[in-house]
Amino acid sequence: RSVLLTRDEEYTLARAIQLGAHVHKIKSEYESTHSKPLSKRQWATLAGLSSPNELRKVVSEYRSAKQELVASNMGLVHAVVKNYSRKAYYRGITIDELVQEGSLGLIRAAELFDPAKGLRFSTYATIWIKGVLSNSRVDEMVLVPQRERQIWNKIREVSKDVDDEDGRLSTDMIAKKLGLDKSSVEQNIQRMSSVNNMLSLDYQYASTTRSGETDGSKPFEALMADKSGSDADLAERAQFKADLVAGLVRNLNEREIQLIRLMYGMHDGHEYSVKDSAKIMGINRETARLLHHACLKKLREASNMESLQEYLLTVA
Length: 316
Known about the structure:
Layout: H1 7-34, H2 40-46, H3 52-71, H4 74-81, H5 85-89, H6 95-112, H7 121-134, H8 137-140, H9 146-158, H10 171-178, H11 182-195, H12 220-225, H13 231-251, H14 254-263, H15 274-281, H16 285-301, H17 306-315
Helix pairs in contact: 1-3, 3-13, 4-6, 4-7, 6-7, 6-13, 9-11, 10-11, 14-15, 14-16, 15-16
């Protein structure tokens, strides 16, 4: 359950977030201008901090403050989502997916909120939550025929038990269980996956979203699948996803992003094999395999996967 904050508490948290955002902006601008990573000592010096230890403290307080501000206001997301629930139902979108989409707006509000303007955070955040939901696919999508929704619901139900030998989702087995031809299953998955695109990649977190990630104890698949937990858990998962998507946007091209999202459950919650991902994308299996290896190499070598870097900074 969300915990209401006083105006003074909001002010304190917002100031910690503003300081952290300023420190991150310094880092981003330096690395953009010089095309090389900034060391922790250089970063601290440029930010006017006495040492890497003080930098670590600022980053840690920034993460904690943003997490608390978001978690304490998740009730706003639930309240706003109620106005979209009927429309979402007819488009095959779940309430959980709407909540996570709205959470992105709440996170953005926490990053940009300035208490000096005189607004309470709840007023400012509600504007952002409504804005994200209004500009998401919830309003843009065409009406999905009832038959397609019914097939999709059946696919989601049987897919829990139809992993192939690699632990990936097998469209062959889904089709066999449902008595449908494989092409119909693939077409439905492709259509409904685009409908359920909870993490819109055109939502540009690339330059502003920062830490708030999980402690790394759960695999990403578990975070995607976990529907339980407190508002703090929901906020943390939403922030983690936003950071991860931002990392993909910064480092991969559109086709590479599509493949990674399919193979690692970021498209509709299911993990697809290289073979099935290739078919959905309209490329051959070998091309998909080589593309997958190229993606992983890019991400391993990327110097700007900031969520992971910042987490390591705060625990090192």
